[in-house]
Design a protein that fits this description.
Blueprint: H1 2-12, E1 27-31, E2 38-40, E3 44-46, E4 58-60, E5 63-67, E6 81-85, E7 89-94, E8 99-107, E9 122-126, E10 129-135, E11 141-149, E12 153-160, E13 167-169, E14 171-176, E15 188-191, E16 194-197, E17 206-214, E18 232-233, E19 244-248, H2 267-270, E20 272-276, E21 289-294, E22 301-308, E23 321-325, E24 328-334, H3 336-339, E25 348-355, E26 362-369, E27 381-382, E28 384-390, H4 403-413, H5 417-435, H6 458-461, H7 475-481, E29 490-494, E30 497-504, E31 508-515, H8 522-535, E32 544-548, E33 555-559, E34 564-565, H9 566-570, H10 580-599, E35 615-617, E36 623-625, H11 639-649, H12 655-660, H13 665-681, H14 697-706, H15 724-737, H16 748-763, H17 776-779, H18 805-808, H19 811-814
Helix pairs in contact: 4-5, 10-13, 10-16, 13-15, 15-16
The structure holds 2-acetamido-2-deoxy-beta-D-glucopyranose (5 copies).
């Protein structure tokens, strides 16, 4: 039946014709300032400006052609020349095909003895509408505009400003957009006030491309695109990378009449997507995938086009999801099969006009599961995004009924029951979403007031604690930093609370850890955390930026670690593998941090929850140990937290702890040994899906190590890089750490020294002879020169003030093993 409907549809309403290559009716490609024609991207002929051809497009004004005296060998030949305008000048193009056109202006600011193009400052307009004002470029850039040309001529005018007295351009492209490239009617406006019809006319405006993203895919060049566009990958825009997982297909999209065409976006955009990453999560887990696309805060109006193609479902009507733009429900319970006339893997797109709130500098897109998909596997996808700034939002005409709806209603008349159902549901969706705009609620999480915990008040909460008062951060600042604890900024959560990514004033990126409401043990632990954390500062420990204890909130603010947990770089993600040298450096860094915890100025702190998710990496892959202060946090009585907590860290637990119910710093050494094997083998500490003897990494790896065959279990991605001597040293170090009895394990200082040795062995050309290769036991209690220098500065705390750290070494604190989930 669907086939019949489609056939009927394509005959009656959609006489769109596909051809493999798009040939625009108007097509002007000018290599400005050059006298020769140039072939670009194998099929695009840019005309030079010799007097017999392209020069005739120059219409008025005084200009000269300029050649880059030192052309860059790797940049486009288009950028080796420019036309420099020394008075108001223009290009004029005849337009055969009235309608939307794409205009691309290429700027590459080279300098010559006469002109330094970086100093140019000018205005560009098209048929009197301003494209660029007060424009100057400091690096090569391509400006792309989409505009309606409704007369038979397009004049592009360059006006130098008084500051510079000249303007320039390196290349110009003007070509007609494909038919129905932008359907200028029935557009929805998403604004901070809600969702409504966009009552203006895009044709009267100019769109300037800001982002063009191939979600889940690779960079696409003009060569890959029938409209010669650039598409870039989405990864850098994902707010939480681990929320998304790439989906790809090898099958070309199933283009359907009425849906997207190759000109709307190339095949490659529709053949990849991001979908919800539900690995290691229960299938009913609800979360969004969110992208933040930066925009200039002074530009408040954008045209947003979202591309979809269901390449993840195996059957129709199994995928329902919600689409949010700037936190507003743009599409509820979206069923792509409705938009694509019941075809799978059929590309489609939706357009919105988005008005951002003042000072907002991102357009935020989220997709997340719909309640409708309750009984099914939840998923949500996105294949592509285009964001264009609406340059001159002027004029407001009353629009007539939308073309799309007319087409649809027409086809209902044609007698298709199936289709009318589809339309009905689409209309219902539209109705629903318009009737129920969801204003953002002010978050009220309902902490039990502090008074409930034995009469503490703000004044006395931290009384007696030794604190750097400079660390106090007002709650309002944290609300601002996290967009009022926006769910899309969550980067972690667990029994202790939720961690948000945030940006403080002065652009300081931070991780904001907010206590869950109702954590009964919260207060004393919070206090201790601040006290402890504020006095330990070390390059390899994640540092405390501040805290907040206003309004019964308990919030800790840490430095933001760009690259996230070490674990994500080892397995279970699509991050590129770390080299062996990087892994060694990371282990060395973490060992340094731990060594400092055990012996440094804050000495005597046992971390008690060392694992690969608690070793975080900064932008430069420098390892920092996190969550050391949380060893003080009390048990969380919530049953689920308890069980997952135990599971989460189980593989790292010191067996001696079970026997003696007492933790020492050697318990951290044991856990660290497990991390070392994790780094070596790139697999989880516990993997219940493996064969019995392989489930526990510690036990399994120890067997191979003891047999002297550890090379068999090395991560295949680094196996070839590791020098045997380095591997031997590393394996022995990990083995010692995993000794059954704490007394047989090395100190963190010894571990550190041995790891550094493994790094030297890896880096040295010549095999270091065995005499130098000291055995771990013989460096136990090594002379001080092996102990790394510790750079510490305590914050407003006397070095000898030990009344806090003495608290921390007791087993009373560290026997609380059940609160470590999710850190
Ligand atoms: C061209 O090479 C220079 C230096 O060799 C480099 O800085 C620049 O990024 C390169 N440009 C492109 C487009 O590859
Ligand atoms: C033009 O831009 C420059 C910086 O590029 C800025 O300093 C100047 O104030 C701007 N002038 C106007 C009139 O906007
Ligand atoms: C895109 O075009 C380049 C040539 O510019 C080609 O090497 C590459 O394979 C193409 N990519 C895809 C995904 O088609
Ligand atoms: C997804 O994001 C929207 C808008 O920010 C929010 O209202 C919704 O609760 C989020 N859904 C989940 C499951 O986090
Ligand atoms: C939108 O504007 C264009 C050009 O200004 C005009 O031709 C067209 O009729 C307008 N459309 C509507 C629905 O007003």
């Amino acid at each position: 039946m669907a086939a019949t409907v489609l056939h009927f549809l394509s005959l009656t309403f959609f006489l769109i014709h596909f051809s493999t290559a798009f040939t625009p009716q108007d097509n002007y490609l000018i290599n400005c300032g050059s006298s020769t024609n140039t072939l670009v991207d194998e099929n695009r002929h840019f005309t030079g400006e010799s007097s017999e051809n392209g020069l005739s497009y120059l219409s008025k004004g005084k200009s000269i052609s300029l050649t880059n005296p030192i052309p860059s060998s790797n940049s486009s030949v288009l950028y080796s020349t420019a036309r420099v305008f020394i008075s108001v000048s223009s290009y004029k193009f005849n337009i055969k095909n009235v309608g939307f056109h794409l205009v691309r202006l290429h700027f590459s600011p080279f300098s010559s003895p006469d002109y330094d193009l970086k100093n140019a400052n000018f205005v560009v307009s098209a048929n009197g509408k301003s494209l660029l004002s007060n424009f100057s470029a400091h690096f090569t850039m391509l400006k792309e505009f989409i505009l309606m040309v409704n007369k038979e001529e397009l004049e592009i005018l360059f006006t130098p400003t008084r500051d510079s007295n000249f303007a320039y351009v390196n290349a110009i492209e003007v070509f007609s957009a494909p038919k129905d490239f932008i359907i200028d009617e029935g557009m929805t406006l998403i604004s901070p006030n809600g969702i409504q019809d966009f009552k203006q006319n895009i044709s009267s405006k100019i769109l300037e491309t800001v982002h063009r993203i191939n979600v889940g895919g690779s960079k696409l060049t003009p060569f890959n695109d029938t409209l010669w566009r650039n598409w870039i990958p989405d990864e850098d825009f994902l707010v939480l990378k681990s929320a998304a997982k790439i989906a790809t297909t090898i099958h070309p999209p199933n283009y359907q009449p009425g849906g997207a065409t190759r000109e709307i976006a190339p095949d490659n955009v529709y053949m990849t997507a991001q979908q919800m990453n539900i690995d290691n999560r229960p299938s009913n887990f609800m979360f969004n995938i969110t992208w933040d696309f930066p925009v200039r805060s002074e530009d408040s109006l954008h045209f947003v086009r979202l591309h979809f193609c269901d390449i993840v479902s195996i059957a129709l009507q199994t995928l329902y999801f919600n689409v949010y733009i700037n936190g507003k429900m743009a599409f509820k319970d979206l069923d792509l099969s409705v938009l694509t006339f019941h075809e799978l893997a059929s590309p489609t797109f939706v357009d919105f006009v988005v008005q951002s709130s003042d000072n907002s500098n991102v357009v935020q897109i989220s997709v997340g599961p719909s309640d409708l998909s309750n009984s099914l596997r939840k998923n949500a996808i996105l294949n592509g995004v285009e964001i264009m700034k609406i340059v001159n939002p002027v004029g407001s005409e009353k629009r007539s009924k939308t073309k799309r709806i007319w087409i649809l209603v027409g086809s209902v008349g044609g007698g298709s029951f199936l289709l009318s159902l589809a339309i009905l549901s689409t209309l219902l969706v539209l109705k629903c979403r318009r009737r129920k705009p969801k204003p953002r609620r002010v978050e009220s999480t309902g902490w039990t007031p502090l008074r409930a915990y034995g009469g503490s008040s703000h004044g006395t909460l931290l009384e007696g604690a030794v604190l750097g008062y400079g660390l106090k951060i007002p709650f309002a600042d944290l609300q601002l930093a996290t967009n009022n604890f926006d769910k899309s900024l969550i980067i972690g959560s667990g029994g202790f609370g939720i961690v948000y990514k945030g940006i403080l004033q002065e652009n300081i990126r931070v991780a904001v850890k907010r206590r869950v409401p109702g954590n009964k043990q919260g207060l004393p632990e919070f206090q201790t955390e601040i006290t402890v954390l504020s006095r330990i500062r070390h390059h390899h420990l994640v540092s405390l930026v501040g805290y907040c204890e206003e309004q019964s909130e308990m919030i800790l603010v840490y430095e933001y670690m760009e690259k996230g947990p070490l674990r994500n770089h080892l397995y279970g993600s699509r991050l590129p593998p770390l080299s062996w040298k990087q892994r060694l450096e990371i282990c060395i860094g973490a060992a340094r941090g731990l060594h400092y915890l055990h012996t440094g100025s804050a000495h005597g702190i046992i971390h008690r929850d060392i694992k690969s998710t608690n070793i975080l990496l900064d932008y430069n892959y420098v390892a920092k140990v996190a969550d050391f202060g949380l060893s003080k946090s009390g048990p969380c009585l919530d049953e689920t937290h308890v069980s997952t907590g135990v599971k989460g860290s189980f593989g790292y637990l010191d067996p001696e702890y079970f026997r003696r119910q007492q933790l020492t710093d050697k318990s951290d050494v044991y856990s660290f040994g497990v991390v070392l094997f994790e780094v070596l083998c790139a697999r989880p500490a516990v993997d219940p899906l493996l064969d019995r003897e392989q489930v526990h990494l510690g036990e399994w790896a120890m067997e191979w190590q003891k047999k002297g065959m550890v090379e068999h279990i090395v991560d295949p991605r680094v196996r070839g890089q590791i020098k045997p001597s380095s591997l031997k040293k590393f394996g022995e170090t990990a083995e010692k750490c995993l000794a059954d009895y704490g007394i047989d394990r090395p100190t963190m200082g010894d571990v550190l020294w041995n790891l550094e040795h493994a790094l030297r062995l890896q880096e040295s050309e010549i095999q270091i002879d065995s005499q130098v290769e000291t055995d771990i036991t013989s460096v136990s209690h090594a002379s001080p020169r092996f102990v790394p220098t510790v750079h510490s500065s305590s914050v407003g705390v006397e070095e000898d003030n030990d009344n806090v750290s003495s608290d921390i070494t007791t087993s009373r604190v560290f026997s609380q093993l059940i609160t470590n989930e999710g850190r």
